Amino acid sequence: MADPSSYRPKPGQIPDSPGVYKFRDEHRRVIYVGKAKSLRQRLANYFQDLAGLHPRTRTMVTTAASVEWTVVATEVEALQLEYSWIKEFDPRFNVKYRDDKSYPYLAVTLGEEFPRVQVMRGAKKKGVRYFGPYGHAWAIRETVDLMLRVFPVRTCSAGVFKNAARTGRPCLLGYIGKCSAPCVGRVTPEEHRELADDFCDFMAGRTGTYIRRLEKDMMAAAEEMEYERAARLRDDVEALKRAMEKSAVVLADATDADLIAVAEDELEAAVQIFHVRGGRVRGQRGWVTDKVENVDTSGLVEHALQQLYGEESGDSVPKEVLVPALPEDPAAVSQWLADRRGSQVSLRIPQRGDKKDLMVTVQRNAQQALGLHKTKRASDLTTRSRALEEIAGALGLDTAPLRIECFDISHLQGDDVVASMVVFEDGLARKGEYRRFQIKGFEGQDDVRSMHEVISRRFRRYLQEKERTGEWEETPAPTGPVPAAPDAADGGAPAAGEAREDDGRPKRFAYPPQLLVVDGGQPQVAAAKRALDELGIDDIAVCGLAKRLEEVWLPDDDDPVVLPRSSEGLYLLQRIRDEAHRFAITYQRAKRAKRIRASPLDAVPGLGDTRKQALIKHFGSVKKLRQATIEEICEVPGIGRRTAESVAVALAAAAPAAPAVNTATGEIMEEDDGGSTT
To answer: Within 10 A of 457 (CB to CB), how many other CB atoms are there?
Structure first.
């Protein structure tokens, strides 16, 4: 591990101008490429205290052994040079998208004397015009088959073409009129190229011209009583319309745009692109990448634009590029796209209308692509086995932890404190054994104390079940209707719809895990270990996964266990931790929404859910809001003085009455359900 101070440039040595920089390792290999408006300011960010750097950035600067830079005149030149270097050096710490599958394109080989229409995959070639990508090759063949009636362009291979030219006989398509048969001289090279150009124009979205021309010719043929020719033209029009129907109309006819959406988590990101030409979705593609550098959504969008248009010909860049977030320097990226296209390109975020609605669809596809990618990775038996073995080796376990339980605490500024327990067996989620906990014993943001309570409750139930049954036999899932969930105060309630025992109680806690994971660092791990020690349980391994640095903490260890970035074991732990976090925050939000719906704020006229939530979020609870002054309430965005006064009046009217006291005994007198006192 190198010390960044050993290769830090001297003060004043780095120019304050746009440029591109490279970090190299001890073997002179380029490991990271970046660009900046100001090289001096950007590079200074890398040479800070290591503790203040993002973990991925820290790994990069400690792997590097030197840094060098190149000054350019403009930010657009920096963008172009950055892409060229990323393509040339393939740095390990740069985001590199990879296709989640091989997409077929409809290709026209305009570079040949007699252009050919065919299905192509893989890297794009010069002299070939591409349309797509398509989801399936059969969709391309259906489209081509319909269009060959009107544009009989050659589709045969070079061998078939030469053989037909040698024998003087065309292939079957030439006999049935779906090829103009240039191989036997039925059309000249110029006439065949004109057919190919018309084919490309139609595929590029200029459809109305050809259909109107054919309809005009059809009417003229009918007037001249050439009914066979009119019928043939009618069939040609229908064929073109069916080919157009293969693509859904989503936007105005003249719209040419690419819509890009990003779905991401801490580890990976998925990008989906919809290609809209002539108002129709002409193609779709997707990428998935590991987030090996510290990059946000804007950075992911910029990398996607570089990869999407870096090697494309100018006519493939549309008039509009719609993105979920603008790059760090949108003006430079827009200029780079305009240079690629040869005319102005609009790079923006859709705000309303059909384009925003379509962007929602693209975003949904990106989310599904990321989920599918994770599911495929998690469902592989070999990968899961390797992940469990890596966890066992890193934590010093005798055997692979076949059952792992993970706990997470969730609250909103100390209110509605809840906890979750998720179970993974053999690397797969067992959702029927998930549990959720309410924590009511205390208030405040004390995750350590909450973790201790939850672990104590869960394993106290484990000891009780062990003592009661004397065996660990799983009760079969019920076949009848699922009863209502019990209160979680006795140890945890399953989520709605999950399996329970025949008598309606939650399934027993009689199965201990081999590994207990907590969401947090050293304090949370110590609390979990202390809870197990107090119960006399010493055969369950404990670890914690700290989210910010992705480090694994063990009890009584001052230093964390750092698993490799590419480790399947780390990936499995992160997936378990994220699932526990999702389950906890879902339960916490449901409780918070229920509390807000039943709050005294409902009595305030004209106060909607959005402003109710803003008030609760600002003050943390109704109790603190009740104690606030009108001026403090007015500080909440969207709350005027009149509304603040109404809120104060409603809360004062709903304030609980002071309890009555028996003057003789000093005891508090409580009201029962009937309203009497005791």
So the answer is: 22
